[in-house]
Predict the structure of FAA hydrolase family protein.
Amino acid sequence: MSQQYVFPPAERWTIPTTEGQGFPVRRVYCVGRNYAAHAIEMGHDPNAEPPFFFQKNPENLDSSGSFPYPQQSEDVHHEVELLVALQSGGVGVCVEDALDMVWGYAPALDMTCRDLQADAKKRGRPWVSAKAFESSAPCGLLVPAQTTGQPSTGAITLDVNGDRRQEGDLSQLIWKVPEVISFLSRQFALAAGDVILTGTPAGVGPVQRGDELVASVEGVGAFSVRVY
């Protein structure tokens, strides 16, 4: 007998790919302070800790090209990142096997309510309201790894209204993509559909309504998003 529900379940959230198919998202993991310069600008020692993670919701991934400024914040910041999408999973994955799990890559933004995050830090509380609010992860098209290869170098940039605000290189990641996947798999059972945002370079800063943001990862792609 088929499963009966108290109401019809929501459809699986998807993000678009360059192949014209939707990528079904299971979970969204984010790596904190994974570029040394960004860790320093946020007041932390980049050599003092192993990688740590927080989560967003699948529905936070938004490829519409628009970002609604959240009403609960007065200080929303941009953070450009490389998005990694997994086609398979596992527990205790070896670094050497990690890239076999990757379906593809995309440029993305980890939008952050910096005022809410600062208050949560001060109170010793989780960052959920600062990181997992609606449409908090704008993203571009997901490109298969068969097309991009496995990018370990390349410029990652963010422009606001034509002015360069963030600029780094994937080679500057403290914890590289295979290491992030391996370390994450020691804490969670990874599976197909999981998405990882790998951290942001220095230069994070506020956005305003009307701003146009252009996020780019060399060899992967670029996309623009309008704040309203």
Observations:
- The CA atoms of residues 145 and 175 lie 19 Å apart.
